[in-house]
């Protein structure tokens, strides 16, 4: 990037005048996602897919965002950075968590109360649920 494109406060803070080329350029290496970069979402998804594939997880060919494992009774949806997981046997969910733990920071909700900004209220007796924010319809 041209040194002239940086604000003075950034130039001073990072001592960029000493790092610039004689032509007035500063070379930058982006090591993670860069907000606002159009291709950052695609690059992050491709990297996640590579990492999950290595452990037997595959994305559905017909339903984008739906993932299954080649041998384990587990499937999950991935919307932006929210996983919604359905599994038989907690050890299979723990396997997915261990795979994600290798490369990412995350939080878990083993009660399934929150997903993609929504709150779920499960009634296990009647097998019904309410998704908040619920609207009162009169």
Task: Indicate the topology.
Elements: H1 8-13, H2 16-19, H3 40-53, E1 57-59, E2 66-69, E3 74-79, E4 82-87, H4 90-101, E5 114-115, E6 118-123, E7 128-132
Textual characterization of the structure:
With 138 residues, the protein is an alpha+beta fold. It has a domain at 1-31. The protein contains four helices and seven strands, in the order H-H-H-E-E-E-E-H-E-E-E. Strands 1-2-3-4 form a four-stranded antiparallel sheet. It has a three-stranded antiparallel sheet with strand order 5-6-7, with no helix packed on it. Strand 5 (114-115) and strand 6 form a beta hairpin. The longest helix has 14 residues, at 40-53. The radius of gyration is 22 Å and the shape is elongated. The N and C termini lie far apart (58 Å).
Extended strand count: 7
Strand content: 15-25%
Q: Mind telling me the C-alpha Rg? A: 22 Å
Tell me the series of helices and strands, N- to C-terminal.
HHHEEEEHEEE
Count the helices. How many? 4
Helix content: 25-40%
Coarse structural class: alpha+beta
Mean pLDDT: 84
Strand order of the largest sheet: 1-2-3-4
Coarse morphology: elongated
Cα-to-Cα separation, first versus last residue: 58 Å
Largest sheet: 4 strands, antiparallel
Low-confidence runs of at least 5 consecutive residues: 134-138
Oligomer: single chain
Keywords:
alpha+beta, single chain, disordered C terminus, elongated, four-stranded antiparallel sheet, 7 strands, 26% helix, 138 residues
Outline:
This protein has four helices and seven strands. It is α+β, with helices and mostly antiparallel strands and 138 residues long.
């Amino acid at each position: 990037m041209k040194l002239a494109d940086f604000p003075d406060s950034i130039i001073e803070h990072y001592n960029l005048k000493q790092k610039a080329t004689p032509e007035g350029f500063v070379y930058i290496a982006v090591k993670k996602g860069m907000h606002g970069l159009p291709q950052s979402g695609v690059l992050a998804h491709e990297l996640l897919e590579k990492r999950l594939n290595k452990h037997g997880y595959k994305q559905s060919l017909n339903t984008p965002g739906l993932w299954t494992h080649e041998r384990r009774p587990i499937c999950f949806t991935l919307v932006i950075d929210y996983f919604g997981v359905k599994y038989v046997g907690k050890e299979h969910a723990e396997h997915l968590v261990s795979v994600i733990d290798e490369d990412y920071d995350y939080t878990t909700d083993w009660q399934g109360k929150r997903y993609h900004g929504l709150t779920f209220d499960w009634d296990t007796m009647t097998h019904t649920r309410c998704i908040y924010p619920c609207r009162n319809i009169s």
